[in-house]
Design brief:
Number of strands: 5
Strand order of the largest sheet: 2-1-3-4-5
CATH class: Alpha Beta
Order of helices and strands: EHEHEHEEHHH
Helix content: 40-55%
Number of domains: 1
Shape: globular
CATH architecture: 3-Layer(aba) Sandwich
CATH superfamily: Response regulator
Distance between the termini: 26 Å
Strand content: 15-25%
Radius of gyration: 14 Å
Oligomer: single chain
Largest sheet: 5 strands, parallel
Amino acid sequence: MKKRKSALVVEDEVLIGEMVQAALADEGFDVHVSHDAGDALRYLKSGKPVDVLFTDIDLPGGMDGGSLARCARDLRPGLPVVYASGKSNGVRHTSKVPGSVFLQKPYDPVQATMLLAQMSGADDETGGEIASRASA
């Protein structure tokens, strides 16, 4: 039996978070959604599995997605990170962690799922099934 990949989605807009959660769950991911960086850090510190972090850049509270990603990498070196923002200059105002990817909002949930699967290695384990469904 294959190990299910897990994603930590950090999105303050509830409907977007639910949409991404549903799309990832449909592809076999275990998904935890946090609505701010503090909750996401608590989840990361809990030791629960996280194979990829998908975070909005603009988050409520004192920490943005860029700072969250740096803290996440301190806790879990090598954790794949995907940033999202609706502001075209959003990624310029944060220092991205090495190897991370930026996804412009609005994005297609299928394309986001495909990207997260690739970043987490889930696409390798499914023999490319996720990518082929996304291109269909």
